[in-house]
Amino acid sequence: MSVILITGASSGIGYQTAQDLARQGHTVYGAARRVDKITPLAKDGVKPLPLDVTSDASLQAAVTTLIANEGRIDVLINNAGYGSYGAVEDVTIAEAKKQFDVNLFGMARLTQLVLPYMRQQHSGRIINTSSMGGRLVSYMGAWYHATKYAVEAFSDALRMETKAFGIQVSLIEPGGIKTNWGFIAADHLVASAQGGAYEQQATKAATGMRRQYASKLLSQPAVISKAIAKAVNQRHPRPRYLVGFGAKPLVFAKAILPTRLFDFIMMHAS
Ligand SMILES: NC(=O)c1ccc[n+]([C@@H]2O[C@H](COP(=O)([O-])OP(=O)(O)OC[C@H]3O[C@@H](n4cnc5c(N)ncnc54)[C@H](OP(=O)(O)O)[C@@H]3O)[C@@H](O)[C@H]2O)c1
């Protein structure tokens, strides 16, 4: 059984995954800012850790606590993230930097902090939550997709350079998953567009997004939790797990369709 740290454990995919892995018998530290939302998982054995992935001090404190308690870390699951949707002209560079801080640099810093322990153990797994959105781009999602494309590149590079130390790196690429993610992204989209040139399209797209995330079409977080459990438990974890609503067909369509046709589909998707 493994000692696991998972970020973004207060909600959605992270919450479900922390619960499932703890029930499998792993020692799971669930981290997030809203640590009170993780306490219900204490009954399953999940240990709540306060964590803001944008704060270096907070990241260091989380790793120090885990190592002090367990003396090792076997698996890091970088899952915390949100969608900063909005037209490029509308989203401030300050917000774009925040999007990168949460979705990329938080994962990068946490990776740096756990690597010395994993190298010393000559074993470890780092599982990074990207998205199908790390391989294709949806309407008005420039900064979100820029972070997820970056997560893909970062993880591919990390996998190659840590292989010799016995460390394995996997990417989780969810499709549409029924969590708060879509509502948070829609809120960002509407707020960024208020009173501007893109307001009409943005409002329409946000309404479509909310409708989609309220529908039964999307996959449940358990679908992703299962894929993450494979990356944790399989003897030979895969570099990529592309799973959940729309993921495989859309990535396939992106690969075979002319760019303008794919653009058209994405612009009219919601
Ligand atoms: N749902 C989808 O359709 C979908 C599709 C593809 C990829 N994903 C990715 O899957 C991951 C999980 O998303 P989800 O769908 O489960 O959304 P969610 O329900 O909104 O959960 C997001 C989690 O990220 C955490 N988080 C956000 N900002 C943080 C910060 N600064 N520090 C620490 N934690 C932070 C939140 O915790 P606190 O706010 O409590 O800190 C929360 O636990 C994200 O990386 C997302 O981009 C989701």
From TrEMBL:
Keyword terms of this UniProt record: Oxidoreductase
Pfam family, one: adh_short
Signal sequence interval, chain numbering: none
Annotated Gene3D superfamilies: NAD(P)-binding Rossmann-like Domain
Gene Ontology molecular function terms on file: oxidoreductase activity
InterPro entries reported for this sequence: NAD(P)-bd_dom_sf, SDR_fam
Record carries keyword Oxidoreductase: yes
Xref: PANTHER family: NADPH-DEPENDENT 1-ACYLDIHYDROXYACETONE PHOSPHATE REDUCTASE
Family note: Belongs to the short-chain dehydrogenases/reductases (SDR) family.
Protein name as it appears in the record: Short-chain dehydrogenase
Naturally occurring in which organism (per UniProt): Levilactobacillus spicheri
